[in-house]
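Field guide to reading this record: the first block holds the primary sequence, the second block holds the structure written as discrete tokens, and the final block holds curator observations. Each block starts with its own label. This record concerns Peptidase S1 domain-containing protein, catalogued under organism Sorghum bicolor.

BLOCK 1 — SEQUENCE
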Amino acid sequence: MTAKTTRNKGGTDYTRGVSREQRAINRRNRLESSLLSSQSYLPSVQRFGEPFREGSIVAFEEKSFGGIIKPGQLTYPVSTDYAEDVSSWVVAIALFDGDKMLFACSGIPIPHGRTRQRLTRFVTSAHLVTQFNQNRNKDDKLRVAVRLPDNTATDGFLGLYDKDIAVVTCLDFLEVCPIDLDHKAKPFPGGCLKAAGRAFNSGSLMAMRGSLYQKRPLEPRNTWVSDSQDISKAVLGGPLLGWDNNIVGMSLDIYDSGDANLRYTFLPMDILCKCLKHFQILNPKKDFRGYALPRDVLSVVPSGFMQTICRLKSHGYPIPPPLVLEFNGRLLNHFEECFGELLPWKGFPYGDPPGGSEKCVWNQLPKEVVTDVSRRVVSLASFNGYVRSFACTSLLIKLGSNAKQTVILTSASLVRDCCNEDIIDDSLTIEVFLPPNQRAGGTLEFYNLDYNIAIVSLKKNFNAICPDDIFTESAKNSSKKVIAIGRDAKFGILMAASGEMKCGNRGCKLDCKDVQLSTCKIKKAGIGGPLINLNGSFVGMNFYDGSGVTPFLPRHKIVKVLSQVNSLPSECGYNHPMPINVIGGTKKGNQKNKWPVPKPYWYHSELQANVHALGKHIGRRLN
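BLOCK 2 — STRUCTURE
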């Protein structure tokens, strides 16, 4: 249903006061188009990501090393009476831009882990990530492929990495046996070893002999040198085998010491195992709430998702765990979630708005009430530089004894410090939006953290607004039916959810004992928005705690707090923002009220821990 059809049915946001409405719509159209264009994409990448080159570098040429190892020719003892074929699990990993190979190395399978999704993971050299980042270009279509021991190839996904190693993941349980991370390799007698690796194009397993290099001052630890002086990047990410053919480490990179001989660096097996366990991929948490990368561990931005990551960073959202973007995971508890019945503003140019969770809510209100609501409910956002800190709804109200000052009533969560919610962050900038094109900066004037109230002034006047006089008590309404109002954080679409007031506040997660509840179901964007009755009278200010009901601070408590002030500090020459010293009662005695807001987090049911998986997942045990 178009905005015109909605308007004809009496369901349109009647925001007025824009004399050049069509020009405003055209500007928004151009803005929307620019957000999707490469011209706006590149500055966002430069601000929140890595700058891209025009195209990838020249194609990579694989080089062989040592000799080709046929199946059964190189084995190592798994037990006293059984030996495993090395050629059955070493893989080749290659980086491509289209059909052009940019890099190739080897990889070692590691235990599957405990995700519900069947996955096979390989550990390899972090040099693969270096090549991925260096070759990334504006097309952003680099891909990773894995050549298996049976000479078939499958797609791989680059994920976590550190300065030494990287992890590549493939879908399904592939026919390769993972190594045992608990294996303790024996020392190298005499420093003799073999290095194995697989070529991607031919699929051949190769091996060469070498020996430990005696470290000189200022040279890296754990270095080995090939007996034949063969130098090939195919050996990177491949296993190093000791005198008894047990795995003693993994080759990492080629080291140029400045003399005539090039050498390889490697990671001993015990350190490799510690690194992989530190990555926390083998035993993931039950869900991704509060997920953060382990210390000194980074995550590759998947191909095709750089703009998505830049947008997430600009909105202050957490970066998704590995594979969540590629496997269509969802971000929950974000500010763009809509609720109730949606009401596009007049002249809405972006097609039909998304379907809401309710119908026939706006029809419960008289037309003049809908008109007033559309002129007094605005969207607010606070920013730390270019990064959004918070977004919510707010209400234009009259303030002061003469009710001539128009200010914005909203939740103090808008300006709380992200690291310490008991204080405000006065470095944040505030943006106010009233559709279709009225935008202005805001100034925090007053706040009360106990009742979570903030008063924001406009830096420039808005046209055709209708501020609410919440200080004048309206006629009593015996009905318990109420409607929670909000504005969408992205386009400013009005949202309304209907419900009834509840007796008491049992089940509320907030500390404030003065909070009441309604059965309206809202989302985070509705924080700070008004709760009204069917006559349009202000009942209270809404909050969100994720409990399924909506806490709200009743009108008389808000009036009690705001009655302490009559004029704005900025107009009287006082420092602002100023606290309003009215202490709110808590459920737990004399401690301060807490107003927690559910944090955004990523969700993917198949990538989280399988709670039914029992026992420890290990690979083969090497003697």
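BLOCK 3 — OBSERVATIONS
The CA atoms of residues 511 and 593 lie 5 Å apart.
Residues 1-10, 14-42, 611-623 have pLDDT under 50 and may be disordered.
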